[in-house]
């Protein structure tokens, strides 16, 4: 391995995915999801190396430079892709950590693959990191890496950040490998969570299920300390706002409104197609508002875009079919011959198009059943011009802890969701402005730069030996 780095990010995903077309041509595309959206500006600023998987199984790719930092691709075989990524990461940990909104599956072969792949990432980090460097490990796919890396390289400063919720004790205890995961995380000097409740869940588990001593927010692990604290993640607020104000995006927003036939009100949903995002409930609630005549399809459009995600995992296949059916039924029963009331696209879009959608949305409807943070909510607040937009936000998104002036809903309560969506549309403009002003203040003062500075500043202080 060439050149060592002083700062290393280790994440399952790289910022870009390698896409091989049918004719064999290779392309790189921005990877899906909030982790990449958040970390990519951090890496551009910090420089260093990003270690991760490039999204194509059974392919080995050489290290390369991207946006001024080094990208170190880690290969996965097809069977590791199935067992470590689709299996243990996304059919065991993902549902378990999201309040079991889908049933987690436990398979010993999946766990074995998780251990093997975590070791591969740890070994790569050990090779890439310079003497005394800072290594920042990311998310649920790599919870064993901190301990494995510490054993290989005790000289490193190791941080870990969990982008998704950390479950309540009663749920975590279902995991047959619970103790090993806790010990894996305790290899870090600092473990960051999205919200304080998640850090408290972690510390409670360590207290009751391991022999380590705890004082306030830290755990004594042999002769060192592991701290656990909340660091709510954010976005490049200025970057998003500037993009939304660019002439290209303003023109694209206009073209989008032309396509939609200039409705009086645009409701917007933006998600990865994931069962944690509450899409079934959201589509049903808004569908009922149309059916009951409380929303007029001639005046209101519900634009929902959903990026394809984890498409071979059973629960995701079921979700895709359910949403196709539900949207089709509502549109065929309600629509006239023109534009349907629900415009649904199962696709990923360039960031400029997302910004154009945020610009034209009168109400963003962000209603996950459980979400670590939810960056879409923050992107909408950053991009929507002026202060007359409205954000409907689930109480169960980490973002609700900060965006308190949003129209908060319980996404399991369909009647509540219907009432709140209507209120967000119909409230006097002064009320909407008051809320939006407060939301804008929040995202302007709590940016991704501040998040990274807080975490890395604490990591440096706390791991000083
Ligand atoms: P998650 O990380 O679970 O996917 P977040 O809301 O935190 O959820 O982050 C999602 C990210 O993916 C955001 O940056 C959002 O802009 C982006 N995104 C979501 N849906 C789409 C889409 N259809 N096309 C392009 N980007 C999308
Ligand atoms: C969430 C997770 C990330 C993940 C992203 C996209 O944001 O926290 O770790 O990268 O979803 O999911 P994928 O499985 O496509 O990487």
Describe the overall structure.
This protein is of the alpha/beta class. It is built from 16 helices and 18 strands. It has two domains: 5-233 and 449-463, Glycogen Phosphorylase B (Rossmann fold); 237-445, Glycogen Phosphorylase B (Rossmann fold). Helix 11 (314-334) links the parallel strand 14 (300-307) and strand 15 (342-345). The longest helix is centred in the first third of the chain and has 21 residues, at 108-128. The chain is globular. The mean pLDDT is 97. The structure holds adenosine-5'-diphosphate (ADP) and 6-O-phosphono-alpha-D-glucopyranose. 6-O-phosphono-alpha-D-glucopyranose (G6P) binds next to strand 1 and helix 1.
> Per CATH, what is the topology of the largest domain?
Rossmann fold
Count of helix runs: 16
The average pLDDT is 97
For the CA atoms, what is the radius of gyration? Answer: 22 Å
Low-pLDDT residue intervals, each spanning 5 or more residues: none
Helix content: 40-55%
Q: Tell me the number of structural domains.
A: 2
Task: Tell me, briefly, the overall form.
Answer: globular
How many DSSP-defined strands?
18
Strand order of the largest sheet: 5-6-4-1-7-8-9-12-11-10
CATH architecture of the largest domain: 3-Layer(aba) Sandwich
Strand content: 15-25%
Structural class by helix and strand composition: alpha/beta
- Outline the biggest β-sheet: 10 strands, mixed
CATH class of the largest domain: Alpha Beta
Small-molecule binders: adenosine-5'-diphosphate, 6-O-phosphono-alpha-D-glucopyranose
- Distance linking N and C termini: 29 Å
| CATH homologous superfamily descriptor of the largest domain | Glycogen Phosphorylase B
């Amino acid at each position: 391995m060439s050149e060592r780095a002083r700062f290393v990010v280790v994440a399952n995903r790289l910022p870009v995915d390698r896409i091989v077309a049918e004719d064999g041509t290779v392309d790189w595309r921005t990877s899906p999801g909030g982790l990449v959206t958040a970390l990519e500006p951090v890496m551009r600023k910090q420089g260093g190396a990003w270690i991760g998987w490039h999204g194509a199984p059974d392919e080995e790719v050489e290290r390369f430079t991207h946006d001024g930092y080094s990208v170190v691709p880690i290969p996965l075989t097809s069977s590791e892709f199935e067992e470590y990524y689709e299996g243990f990461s996304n059919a065991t940990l993902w549902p378990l950590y999201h309040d079991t909104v889908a049933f987690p599956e436990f398979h010993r072969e999946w766990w074995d693959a998780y251990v093997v792949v975590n070791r591969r990432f740890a070994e790569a980090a050990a090779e890439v990191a310079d003497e005394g460097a800072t290594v920042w490990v990311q998310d649920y796919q790599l919870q064993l890496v901190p301990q494995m890396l510490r054993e290989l390289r005790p000289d490193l400063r190791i941080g870990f950040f969990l982008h998704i919720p950390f479950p309540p004790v009663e749920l975590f205890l279902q995991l047959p490998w619970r103790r090993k995961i806790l010990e894996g995380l305790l290899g870090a000097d600092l473990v960051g969570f999205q919200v304080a409740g998640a850090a408290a869940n972690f510390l409670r588990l360590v207290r009751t299920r391991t022999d380590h001593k705890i004082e306030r927010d830290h755990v004594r692990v042999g002769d060192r300390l592991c701290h656990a604290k909340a660091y709510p993640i954010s976005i490049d607020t200025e970057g998003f706002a500037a993009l939304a104000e660019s002439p290209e995006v303003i023109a694209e927003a206009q073209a989008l409104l032309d396509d939609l036939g200039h409705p009086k009100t645009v409701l917007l949903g933006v998600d990865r197609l994931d069962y944690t995002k509450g899409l079934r409930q959201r589509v049903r609630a808004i569908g009922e508002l149309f059916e009951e005549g409380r929303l007029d399809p001639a005046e209101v459009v519900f634009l929902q875009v959903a990026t394809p995600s984890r498409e071979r995992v059973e629960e995701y296949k079921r979700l895709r079919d359910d949403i196709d059916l539900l949207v089709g039924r509502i549109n065929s029963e309600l629509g006239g011959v023109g534009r349907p009331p629900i415009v649904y696209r199962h696709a990923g879009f360039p960031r400029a198009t997302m910004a154009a959608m945020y610009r034209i949305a009168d109400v963003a409807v962000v209603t996950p059943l459980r979400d670590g943070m939810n960056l879409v909510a923050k992107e909408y607040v950053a991009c929507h011009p002026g202060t007359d937009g409205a954000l409907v936000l689930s109480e169960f998104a980490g973002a609700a802890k900060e965006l308190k002036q949003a129209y908060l809903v319980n996404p399991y309560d369909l009647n509540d969701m219907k009432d709140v969506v209507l209120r967000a549309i119909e409230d006097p403009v002064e009320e909407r402005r008051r809320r939006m002003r407060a939301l804008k203040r929040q995202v302007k003062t709590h940016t991704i730069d501040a998040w990274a500075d807080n975490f890395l500043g604490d990591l440096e202080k706390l791991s000083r030996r």
